[in-house]
Design goal:
Structural class: alpha/beta
Number of strands: 9
Helix content: 25-40%
Radius of gyration: 19 Å
Shape: globular
Order of helices and strands: HEHEHEHHEEHHEHEHEEHHH
Number of helices: 12
Distance between the termini: 17 Å
Largest sheet: 9 strands, mixed
Length: 328
């Protein structure tokens, strides 16, 4: 079963987050970093007067949690790191259709075809590399090139992270499951496994690994923190239409009938929250009227393949591929 498969990935992140009777509490499951998201939720609490009980864990773990809890889940809202985890929960029938006034805030490309989830911020997969260890001439043209023997033991990956899993789902959809399986098998040899994007970036920055596959905003956040001139790494895109350039979203879906859920989703798509994502996390805003972070290529100009984010719901199949390769 999908829930069991996801739960087998990791349950560490759910420590202290076991289901409990909500007793009227408003509960949000958040599959994003607490350091990034809690300040925004604190702002929501201050502005709305609505108390929020937040449960942090990986998006895949929380998706599994909702599926296991079923109709008894205390979650009112699921705020996930990527569209894949949302799609998996929606596919199981545990997300409610959002009102049209909410859905219309974002482009159809960044929301569910059935209206059960919508993007809250945008991100792009990138190749992060140590400029002392990877020359411009060595930059791979395609993410598939990383399967070559010259990359053995040099590439940081995070197989249990939902962003990596979403990328693998897209890889299997775009290039076929056989190609995806072959690439994953090669990454068993070429990859160095880390828990998440941020630890990959730190490993590249500290010289532990030559390169890594991450979301763009981790590198920008690090640059904003320490000064871009002090970074030891750069980020690069693969060739146009390569699946390694996947565009994805952090997104949100409503689990319960609690009317406070819509209010919370509206807040995430408000100018206040969208500007927060721009300023604090260097993510792409998804509503009109908010400019993306300075220096970023506009989201619609990213050389990504044509890909329907609704297809990321095939997370169960992706986990099987990753485990067959011995990466989890």
């Amino acid at each position: 079963m999908f829930a069991a498969a996801l739960a087998a990935v990791s349950v560490v992140g759910l420590a202290g987050c076991a289901p409990a009777d909500s007793d009227g509490d408003f509960v949000v499951y958040v599959g994003r970093s607490e350091t990034l998201i809690q300040p925004l939720i604190d702002q929501y609490i201050a502005e709305s007067g609505i108390e929020v009980q937040v449960r942090y864990a990986g998006s895949a773990e929380l998706a599994a949690q909702i599926l296991e809890e079923g109709e008894n889940s205390p979650a009112d809202v699921f705020f996930a790191q990527d569209a894949g985890a949302l799609g998996a929960v929606s596919k199981a029938g545990f997300l409610r259709e959002l009102d049209a006034d909410l859905l219309n805030l974002v482009d159809p490309e960044y929301r569910a075809a059935d209206g059960t989830w919508m993007g809250a911020s945008g991100r792009v997969r990138v190749f992060n590399y140590d400029t002392d260890k990877v020359t411009q001439a060595e930059l791979p043209n395609s993410v598939l090139d990383l399967a070559g023997p010259e990359w053995r033991g040099r590439v940081g990956i995070a197989p249990t992270n939902s962003s990596f899993q979403a990328f693998v789902t897209a890889l299997a959809k775009v290039e076929g499951e056989e190609v995806a399986s072959q690439w994953l098998a090669a990454m068993k040899e070429n990859g160095v496994i880390y828990e998440k994007n941020s630890t990959i970036l730190e490993a590249v920055e500290s010289g532990q690994v030559d390169a890594g596959l991450i979301n763009h905003y981790y590198w920008y956040a690090k640059g904003n923190e320490v000064g871009f001139e002090n970074l030891n790494s750069e980020i690069a895109a693969f060739d146009s239409q390569d699946v390694g350039n996947l565009r994805n979203v952090a997104g949100v879906g409503i689990v319960s009938e609690d009317p406070r859920a819509k209010d919370f989703v509206e807040f995430l798509l408000s100018e206040t929250a969208q500007q927060y994502f721009v300023n604090e996390t260097s993510e792409y805003p998804l509503i009109d009227g908010v400019e993306p972070p300075a220096g970023l290529t506009p989201l619609d100009e990213i050389p990504a393949p044509e890909f329907d984010l609704n297809d990321l719901e095939a997370l169960e199949e992706t986990l099987q591929l990753i485990r067959a390769a011995g990466l989890i």
